[in-house]
Design a protein that fits this description.
Order of helices and strands: HEEHHEEHEEEEEEHHHHHH
Number of helices: 10
Number of strands: 10
Length: 286
């Protein structure tokens, strides 16, 4: 057995061990990239996943759909085209979102230094040029959220580089916020979000800030826990917050940003957030 054959055998053994723990895996070829689409899937002929955006109806037996091909099925991993792929593989990759994980990919020393002063400590895995910080929970993936920092979770793959060190911490809001674009001001007024509401001069029901903070926290939780009809949930939640807290001028841009961040973490675009907010304002006559 040649050394190269032995290494590739180790890749498959590592993949099977990961799959047994519920981590979806796939082989990477030279250059640390997934295997290309097979002929039957080229040009979206399969009607499924060649663009690697979302899983589709494709039943291709080969590992040619990148993150969407990742699997925990040992029979799939060791048979047919997959077996041949492992014979050519240069590394093992996994789908973090499929394992309910998020990887913060820190690509250089500056990015690592930033993370150490900004993000909660968690399981850390050394990479060729930097580190992977791994959190428990999922979110939309995003590249270049800041210099040298990518986020890999849903619809993405990451190289498997070992278990690393430390305890995997829950995914914090500070990481979720990295992938959220700054919400634009409502298009119907060139004002800040709270300025668009206007301080109506009504009696303020908030004897302390706790009442307002609790209301915003409950709204964020409601959006975060939505399992379906996210867009409708976001609008109803915005409407409820504005109905209770929107007339006296106490609702700040920071509060609104928390709501927008929660909505965008569930897949809402900045435009949809702004439209829902503006519609809620209009409905309430604010």
């Amino acid at each position: 057995m040649t050394q190269l054959t032995h290494v590739r055998g180790e890749h498959l053994r590592a993949a099977l061990a990961l799959a047994a723990t519920g981590v979806p895996v796939l082989p990477l070829r030279a250059g640390k990239v997934p295997f290309g689409n097979c002929r039957r899937c080229a040009g979206n002929a399969c009607g499924g996943r060649p663009n690697m955006k979302t899983p589709g109806p494709c039943a291709c037996p080969g590992p040619c759909h990148a993150w969407a091909a990742a699997t925990t099925n040992p029979h799939v991993l060791t048979s047919g085209p997959w077996q041949r792929a492992w014979q050519r593989a240069s590394a093992v990759a996994y789908h973090p979102g499929g394992a309910r994980l998020t990887v913060v990919d820190l690509d250089n020393a500056d990015a690592i230094a930033w993370a150490r002063t900004t993000l909660p400590a968690t399981r850390t895995v050394p990479t060729t040029r930097g580190e992977h910080w791994i959190y428990r929970g999922t979110m939309p993936s995003a590249n270049a959220v800041r210099p040298g920092v990518d986020i890999k979770s849903t619809a993405a793959y990451a190289r498997w580089l070992g278990n690393g060190t430390g305890v995997t911490a829950p995914l914090p809001d500070s990481v979720r916020a990295l992938a959220v674009k700054e919400p634009p001001a409502p298009r119907r007024a060139a004002q800040s979000l709270t300025g668009a509401m206007g301080a109506r001069g009504g009696a303020c029901p908030h004897r302390t800030s706790t009442y307002l903070d609790r209301g915003v926290a409950m709204a964020v939780q409601q959006i975060t826990e939505a399992r379906s009809a996210v867009h409708a949930t976001v609008y109803r939640t915005f409407l409820a917050v504005l109905s209770t807290h929107g007339r006296c001028g106490c609702l700040t841009d920071a509060h609104v940003a928390r709501l927008f961040t929660a909505a965008q973490a569930k897949g809402e675009s900045p435009r949809h957030c702004t439209d829902a907010w503006t519609n809620a304002l209009t409905t309430l006559g604010l």
